[in-house]
């Protein structure tokens, strides 16, 4: 029901089709299943006849890490510094979202977004950036409309860490995952998120998201 409150014009009277949101964002800590779910949800909506597409709004942190290792450093922060990495990530994610929004407007598609602006605000908080840095990021990201619905994939940090290890291309400490979870929950946007229990099987999580979208 939270979804209806956020999805703009009122839905058709009872019995009519529920209005499909134009922008759907999936957010949450690393390992919560954003990429997995955004892909599946986009595919399910497309199969149901909606012009839905998967869009990734990456901040590049994964690639910075790989580049750092290539040049003999341990990770992105070792190469670019903590502040440098945050500035780069904020800029790259801004560009990614600008591209996603442009494509959404041009193609009139339903964008199922893997991450959005709030992920950057949470990242800044989790990495201990100064409040000034978040204020600046919020100013730059204000250009982007709020998604019609934001799903927060709520996962236990222990479960997330196990998944990240199984995925095998990066690692996160428990301390960071807990801090990141707290950062999302501390955001002023958090009360408007539709919280999904993301500890279950991929199928259970997809079902919960589709149910909120009136597609189950
Ligand atoms: N519900 C789930 N149960 C078990 N494993 C999952 C689930 N969702 C995703 N995974 C796996 O866990 C890893 C992390 O998922 P991913 O979608 O990449 O998360 P994120 O994009 O939020 O970091 C991937 O290897 C993925 O296949
Ligand atoms: Mg991902």
Overview of the molecule:
With 216 residues, the chain is of the alpha/beta class. The chain has a domain at 23-57 and 110-213: P-loop containing nucleotide triphosphate hydrolases (Rossmann fold, 3-Layer(aba) Sandwich). The protein is 54% helix and 12% strand. It has helices at 2-6, 34-47, 61-70, 76-80, 82-107, 117-126, 131-141, 157-167, 174-186, 202-212; strands at 23-27, 52-56, 110-114, 149-154, 194-197. A 5-stranded parallel beta sheet has the order 2-3-1-4-5, sandwiched between helices. The radius of gyration is 17 Å and the shape is globular. The site of magnesium ion (MG) has 3 residues, from α2. Magnesium ion (MG) is lined by residues 34-35, 114. It comes from Actinoplanes italicus.
In short:
The protein is an alpha/beta fold. The protein contains ten helices and five strands; from the N terminus they run αβαβαααβααβααβα.
The span between the termini is 14 Å
Q: Give the CATH architecture of the domain at 23-57 and 110-213.
A: 3-Layer(aba) Sandwich
Order of helices and strands: HEHEHHHEHHEHHEH
Q: Strand-residue fraction?
A: 5-15%
The CATH topology assignment of the domain at 23-57 and 110-213 is Rossmann fold
Low-confidence segments, ≥5 residues, pLDDT <50? 1-16
Which hetero compounds are present in the coordinates? adenosine-5'-diphosphate, magnesium ion
CATH H level, superfamily name of the domain at 23-57 and 110-213: P-loop containing nucleotide triphosphate hydrolases
How many strands?
5
Secondary structure class reads alpha/beta
Question: How is the main sheet built?
Answer: 5 strands, parallel
Overall pLDDT confidence = 92
Q: Sum up the overall morphology in one term.
A: globular
For this structure, what is the CATH class of the domain at 23-57 and 110-213?
Alpha Beta
Helix content: 40-55%
């Amino acid at each position: 029901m939270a979804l209806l409150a956020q999805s703009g014009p009122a839905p058709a009277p009872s019995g009519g089709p529920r209005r499909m949101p134009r922008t759907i964002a999936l957010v949450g800590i690393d390992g919560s299943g954003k990429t997995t779910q955004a892909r599946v949800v986009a595919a399910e909506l497309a199969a149901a006849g909606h012009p839905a597409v998967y869009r990734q709004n990456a901040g590049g942190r994964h690639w910075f890490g790989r580049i750092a290792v290539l040049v003999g450093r341990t990770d992105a922060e070792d190469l670019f510094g903590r502040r440098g990495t945050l500035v780069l990530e904020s800029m790259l994610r801004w560009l990614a979202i600008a591209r996603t929004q442009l494509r959404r407007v041009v193609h009139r598609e339903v964008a199922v977004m893997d991450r959005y602006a709030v992920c950057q605000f949470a990242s800044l908080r989790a990495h201990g950036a100064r409040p000034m840095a978040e204020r600046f990021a919020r100013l730059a990201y204000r250009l982007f409309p709020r998604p019609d619905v934001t799903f927060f994939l709520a996962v236990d940090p222990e479960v997330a860490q196990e998944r990240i290890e199984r995925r095998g291309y990066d690692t996160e400490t428990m301390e960071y995952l807990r801090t990141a979870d707290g950062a999302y929950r501390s955001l002023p946007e958090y009360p408007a998120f539709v919280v999904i229990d993301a500890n279950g099987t991929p199928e259970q999580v997809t079902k919960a998201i589709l149910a909120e979208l009136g597609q189950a």
